[in-house]
Write the structure tokens for this entry.
Amino acid sequence: MTTLFDLLRRPLAFVAGFSFFVNLLLLAPALFMLQLFDRVMVSQSRETLLMLLLGMGVAFALMLALDYLRGRLQGVAGNIVAESLSPTVAKVTLAKMASHSDRPSVEGLRDVATLRNLFSAQGLLAVFDSPWAIVYILVIWLAHPWLGVAAVAASLLMLGLAVLNDRITRRDIDALQKAASKATRYLESSMQNAEVVQSLGMADTLVMRWRTLSAKVSALQGPSASKSVAMAAITRTTRQAVQVLMQALGAYLVITGEATPGVMVATTILLGRALAPVEQIVGSWRVLAEGRLALRRLQALLGASAAQPEPMQLPAPIGRLQAQGLIFRAPNSERVILGGISLALEPGEALAIVGPGGAGKSTLVRLLLGVWKPNAGVVRLDGVDLSQWPREEIGPWVGYVPQDVELFAGTVAENIARLGHVSAKLVARAAQRAGVHEMILSLPNGYNTFIDPAGAAISPGQRQRIALARALYGDPKLVVLDEPNSNLDGAAELALGETLRSLKGIVTTVVVTHRTSLVQHVDKMLVLEAGRTVQYGSLQEVQQALQKADARAGGAQVVVMPRAATAAHGPAGREGAA
């Protein structure tokens, strides 16, 4: 935010400077009326009238140019806000969403758009014009003290209306924004499951729930709009009434001989100019208030990110992974999902994590990646707390295939290259390591085949295999695979097994699986149940311990162990978010 204010300082300083000259030129109409009534109409001089008109023409031309320039600079300031904040806010938002934060997903980006709109609003220019009310009132006071007193009283009255408007509408606007954001988030999250909604005939129920949330927004919007409209109407009416009273006072002073008609007309014009910014601010109050709230939220969002100490650049990892006493609770809950999980892998070792659905396997995966932060305990890669390692630095050294694979809009090559610069050599190498080179070549356009995330041109199994190639792109030292064979057929699963075998001794690998076909390619095994470690050690030790436990139980399985692989396209049972 400090950098943003530094960037805004110069354009806003120019806006303030142009506002100075625009408001200075706005004195010209009052001076014109003063000269018109007190000199031209008395002397009946056509030459004087012509010169006054020429002077006003020059003044209006300058005013037009300066007003246009400050309006353009206001737009430039809005673009600076968007271009400076959007990338940072997007990165912080992605980090919060990945860390399972309950913060609204795109609220920060909406706040940036709100600030951009604020810099395009006329109410902001009125804020720059409002200090000139003091200058106009001073000029009125010099014309006649009684008129000055009336102008001060009128200004205080209008200022009081502005403050009253703020007090009346502030809570309503805040509550309205929260309710509208909640309704929008519900609709966005529901649209992500459009296929399920349409298949199960849930559209009417979903829309009904969304309309219920929207009805709450409308219920809040009605009173808020009524108050805002009422205050705007009262402000306009008060301003007109004040000007009429000012004219009446000026006429009284003319009748008593204490002022001239020119003074009466000129001071009335000046008072109207002094009060106009206040009226504009009240009329644009909702935009200004929303901009103020958006700025506060952005300060809180970016302030928390900026509070993190600048990390020291670390050498490339070699793949030594350690987890000590990991405890993780569900967000906003005391329910323990993982309790006291510890493990250690030397560079190049492979670990299989098995267990029944809901055991906490996927949660452990996210902790091992450093995407989620444990409530207690620590995950270290080469001795460094992984959650503290900057993602842009550690990302190229990590490969990850999630349980639910999502590819991005772009070509197959761009997806494998992680949307970065496409190196044909590295892309082909990653595809060959993942055993998907021939499969990709069989696609309509090979590596240049365009992937539509919402389309069905590529099957779930093909997506999973391309995601594996993406995980192996470059030179990763830690690869984490969460049920990488859930959508694979027999041949593809054999290719995956060959990939795991080739990674042994080179890349530290963690694989979550429900199938015995992958277990044979690992060095160690971790068995989880209800978030606790049942068995952990070398593959042979764990298998022997489980067989003994099974025998002691009389053949009844103590822990749900991996089942045999299905013949073809047999998706494994998926665990929940935990």
Observations:
- The chain is about 60% helix and 10% strand.
- The first strand starts at residue 321 and ends at 329.
- The longest helix spans residues 46-98.
- Residues 2-306 form a domain with the ABC transporter transmembrane region fold fold (CATH 1.20.1560.10).
